[in-house]
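Name: Peptidase family M1
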Amino acid sequence: MKQFLMYALILLVNVAVAQQTPQWQGKFEQLDQTLPTPNEYRTGSGAPGVKYWQQKADYVISVELNDNNQSISGSETITYTNNSPDVLKYLWLQLDQNIIAPENTLRTTATGNVVDSAAAKTYAAQVSDFKGGYTVKGVKEVSGKALPYFINNTMMRVDLPQPLRSGEKYSFNVEWSFNIVDRSVFGQRSGLEFFPEDGNYVYTIAQFFPRMCVYDDYEGWQNKQFLGRGEFTLPFGDYKVRITVPADHIIGATGVLKNPTDVLTKTEIERFEKAKVTFDAPVIIVTQSEATQKEKTKSTQKKTWEFHAENVRDFAFASSRKFIWDAQAVKIGSKTPLAQSFYSKEGNPLWEKESTKAVKNTLEVYSRYTLDYPYPVATSVHSASIGMEYPMICFNFGRPAKDGTYTEKLKQGMIGVVVHEVGHNFFPMIVNNDERQTTWMDEGVNSFVQLLTELERYPELKYTRGKPADLVPYMKGDKSQMRPLMTNSEQVIQFGPEQYAKAATGLFMLRETVMGPELFDKAFKEYATRWAFKHPKPADFFRTMEDASAVDLDWFWKGWFYSTDNVDQSIDQVKWYKMRTSQPNLEKKEVTAKKGDLAQGDGKKYDSFNNGPEPFSLIETDPRLNGEFQSRVDDKAIMQKLEDKNIYEVTLSNKGGLVMPVIIEWTYKDGTKEIEKIPAEIWRINEQKITKVFVKQKEVVNIVLDPNFELSDINVQDNVFPKREVESKFDDFKKKEKSK
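Structure predicted for Peptidase family M1:
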């Protein structure tokens, strides 16, 4: 009988909970059925498996930049190593210059409208006579025998004379050329900028050679066409590159300059060597006056620069007679990489003051959060209206006015883009995700570490991208114009807010609110070191973060990465109780029990504390509640502990659909405050509405959800109790952040 009564009591409790619970939605259901099945290549822990493999592509390249007709011609020998268990009958190469070839997919699929009084420049590319794209002059075996190939837009398939088996290597040659695009017209990542006042060019050259596609365990060949937004997916390899340019040009490139005595003056070499051992400030290797003099003379001779780079996924370079060059050494673990900048006089004085300093700051902070920067150089190049990254080199905007003046906003933007693009050395140049498919894995992850760097090294500047409060306008927007983070790059509508800002904000929340910095940093560093110089997928990141932290984050990945839900928590009501006692209660008023005081639907309003506390009673425990246990709790001691305590029954709603932790700020009658953080698992039974009881020593006068705007809550009006206007609180917070 006692057993029956015990089960009956439990049943009543469960029925009561079930009556309050809406239809189950499964926001806390595990991602096991969504993520790929673990295997011997990629484990359930998120680490590479015992049989993980990846291909290797080594390049020997000779290229010439023609400054008279603005063209590139070159030849390359590619040695491809098949480390996969598969037999390959053909190879796929990327021809990214073909994105601007006639009848390319980007142009033919572009959409738009006719706008009255539009700037003529908006039609410049559409009516241009420029002939873009590769001219592939031949694909041959190293013996000289022609290889069959065909080109499909931005991809080229090369058929092998015999199948390439596991563990084998194959070398072949490709010869090619193309016209260098004017970036001011076509807006490409690679191209030229012309300076009419002195008649010179700055060339920032990338995607300039046919490059191997990735072949991996996940999808075989990654030969998705290049449509302009989804960037690059590339295997690692070693590079030897010879670049022939006008003799008065200075080149910055991926890798180490191997023949400085052939291309630099004696004075430049002395300054270069000094920079390698100077840690406190940049050394000017080519001065502004020297660069300005070369702008006038324009040599007709040629020089060939040679660069070597090991274990990189790509190669890029910049070349101009206009370049000023400075550099300094940076201490990173046991290495001393060279931070350096190349910029025209149009970038000064801002670039001389800030660029190399920003490179140094980035290497130091990123190395602490991920892994020690392994490459010998990190280069920032001044280029108009761009931020673009390649191994060891990046092209960055930030140009002062003609008189050299610049605003704080321009300075902030210039430093921010340098930090971001240099940071890309870590994501995806080292932790080498598939940019063509999953943008957030490099842009979002990198934007997150960028924010950490900016907050630490530039606290006086107003960096906010990645902070939860900054994302609120986007999260409040039209959901039909949103896409989940787990969306292919080409289908994203709001590219910056989603793939950069939303992803960065999610990681910032994980670090600051969900996991805490110490635990997050350990897990994040584990991910970086596990997947350095490898090809991680989203599942590898998700699984590693959980494996290295013992925090179940599937609810977070589902909500933040797989949906367009937002955070909109609200305080629906607060009931204030005090236990009945024989002594006079607050303000010496007798507390009397009234039938129905605690009944549901009693008709009372619980929208303020004005009516004082409701009384409630505790009674001695019914022995049947003890079940088979022989021990007994001390009822009187429990009641004594609750005497004079303030008990608050708080009902919260999740209106936005995105489950997140609950952060409550309690303000007490004596003016003190307390912040209480409750894990997101509080929503695990009822994802829409919860009620929780809090026992407080002090009397509460005010309750606020998410007081420091850590969760990107889209409506702060319903985050307070008693109810009042709170929009000004959010505005005040934003103003305070900007004024720091």
